[in-house]
């Protein structure tokens, strides 16, 4: 048994307190939060020619393919309630437009997910409120073709095509693909789709349809065994890895998730520099958005983010540090991918624990767009002029800054458009 230590405390407890002391000193008050989450449960995006449920699509999915389901609404309500509990002492009890800004991609499922999330986060937007007490909360978006923040390049970016081609032509990728040729050939016979020699996203869409149907209690065809579903998931992981992983992962990130990462850091810097009251920015998006962001952070683990998965950035001011500039700010990351458990704390590679802001910026610099922007032109094409700066926080925060505080627009550096094959 451990003997008594100082102050009459057991030696073991004293040692634990001493070990935790640096952490306690490092953890200061929250000053800014950014969260990026995937929409909730949805209907399948598409069917396939031999789908036994194809003729019943309208009855099974009355709101349409790709639309948010009742379960998806519930998931987002629950996520909003989690955020309320986590930030109860940070956010005001009721929504204040100067404190919270919400941005979504221009898809029904992400817009509805943001609204459901806010209904869990703020009591005045919650379901069941009386008509007199209910207050809607704004969700901002831009047209799909103009979204340079939450959607990323493929069709419109020759340089990204070159980087992707380099990954898919690598020996490791080709070896894995060859090992699945017989499997994909059999799957062609089962599904009526052309899969061999086609983009692997086609195989992923088969998996997505099957998983959506299974989640909603629909019987799967006899060929869709657990082993087939596992193999399809492995094929999907190979495809995702080519998009966000090596080779040249940092340059890919500059054209994808690094754009959003740079925006999050830029928002915090401008809020601090201009003294804005903004406390939280929320982004309602897709698994492709989260995957690209994970890639930019060096945190992609081979798994697709589930519905309502949430990646959070928490900016804190360290206690006991007399320095008043950004040098006394740390960033902590968390990932909530399971509503039944606590969120997972994440560490940026090379910076365990709460990471000093300066170190975070330094480590992520290769994955973020340079000041002059990243050209999408291919290596054999002439360079294109730098894109025009556009608002990062569209509308509300920019108007707040410009009109009520006499300040300029919050801006970011745009790049190319579109996700790999579209958001899901």
Would you write up a description of this structure?
- There is one protein chain.
- By secondary structure, the protein is α+β, with helices and mostly antiparallel strands.
- The chain has a domain of 248 residues: 3-Layer(aba) Sandwich (Rossmann fold), CATH 3.40.50.1240.
- Helices cover 40% and strands 11% of the residues.
- It contains 14 helices and nine strands.
- The strands form two sheets. Strands 1, 2, 3, 4, 5, 6 and 7 form a seven-stranded mixed beta sheet that branches. The chain has a two-stranded antiparallel ribbon with strand order 8-9.
- Helix 3 packs across helix 4, helix 8 packs across helix 9 and helix 11 crosses helix 12.
- Belongs to the histidine acid phosphatase family.
- InterPro entries: Acid_Pase_AS, His_Pase_clade-2, His_PPase_superfam, Histidine_acid_phosphatase.
- Its EC number is 3.1.3.2.
- Low-confidence runs of at least 5 consecutive residues: 1-9, 11-26, 322-326, 381-421
CATH homologous superfamily descriptor of one domain: Phosphoglycerate mutase-like
SS-derived structural category: alpha+beta
By CATH, the architecture of one domain is named 3-Layer(aba) Sandwich
Distance between the termini: 56 Å
**N-to-C order of helices and strands:** HEHHEHHHHHHHHEHEEEEHEHE
User: Main beta sheet, described?
Assistant: 7 strands, mixed
Provide the helix percentage: 25-40%
CATH class of one domain: Alpha Beta
Average pLDDT confidence is: 85
DSSP summary: helix tally: 14
Cα shape = globular
Total E-strand runs: 9
Q: Can you tell me the CATH topology of one domain?
A: Rossmann fold
Strand content: 5-15%
InterPro entries: Acid_Pase_AS, His_Pase_clade-2, His_PPase_superfam, Histidine_acid_phosphatase
Keywords: Glycoprotein, Hydrolase, Membrane, Signal, Transmembrane, Transmembrane helix
GO biological process, one term: lysosome organization
Protein name: acid phosphatase
């Amino acid at each position: 048994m451990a003997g008594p230590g100082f102050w009459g405390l057991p030696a073991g407890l004293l040692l634990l307190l001493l070990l935790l002391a640096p952490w306690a000193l490092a953890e200061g008050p929250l000053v800014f939060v950014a969260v990026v989450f995937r929409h909730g449960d949805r209907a399948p995006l598409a069917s396939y020619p031999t789908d036994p449920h194809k003729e019943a699509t309208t009855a099974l999915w009355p709101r349409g393919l790709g639309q948010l389901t009742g379960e998806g609404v519930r998931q987002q309500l629950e996520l909003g309630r989690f955020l309320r509990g986590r930030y109860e002492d940070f956010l005001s009890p009721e929504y204040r437009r100067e404190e919270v800004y919400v941005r979504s991609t221009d898809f029904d499922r992400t817009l509805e997910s943001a609204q459901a999330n806010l209904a869990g986060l703020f009591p005045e937007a919650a379901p069941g409120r009386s008509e007199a007490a209910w207050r809607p909360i704004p969700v901002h978006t831009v047209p799909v073709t103009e979204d340079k923040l939450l959607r990323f390049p493929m069709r419109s970016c020759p340089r990204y095509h070159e980087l992707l081609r380099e990954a898919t032509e690598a020996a490791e990728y080709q070896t894995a693909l060859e090992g699945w040729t017989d499997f994909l050939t059999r799957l062609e016979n089962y599904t009526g789709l052309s899969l061999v020699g086609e983009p692997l996203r086609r195989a992923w869409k088969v998996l997505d349809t099957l998983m959506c149907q299974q989640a909603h209690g629909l019987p799967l065809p006899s060929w869709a065994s657990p082993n087939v579903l596992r193999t399809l998931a492995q094929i999907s992981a190979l495809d995702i890895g080519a998009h966000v992983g090596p080779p040249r992962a940092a340059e890919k990130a500059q054209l994808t998730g690094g754009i959003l990462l740079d925006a999050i850091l830029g928002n915090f810097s401008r809020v601090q520099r201009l003294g804005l009251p903004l406390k939280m920015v929320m982004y309602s998006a897709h698994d492709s958005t989260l995957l690209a962001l994970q890639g930019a952070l060096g945190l992609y683990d081979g798994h697709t983010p589930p519905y309502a998965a949430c990646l959070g950035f928490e900016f804190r001011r360290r206690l006991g540090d007399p320095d008043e500039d950004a040098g006394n700010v740390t960033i902590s990351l968390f990932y909530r991918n399971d509503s039944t458990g606590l969120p997972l704390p994440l560490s940026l590679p090379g910076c365990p624990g709460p990471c000093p802001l300066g170190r975070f910026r330094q480590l992520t610099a290769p994955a973020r767009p340079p000041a002059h922007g990243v050209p999408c032109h291919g290596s054999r094409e002439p360079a294109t002029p730098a894109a025009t700066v556009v608002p990062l926080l569209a509308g509300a925060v920019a108007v707040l800054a410009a009109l009520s505080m006499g300040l300029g627009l919050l801006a970011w550096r745009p790049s190319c458009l579109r996700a790999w094959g579209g958001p899901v």
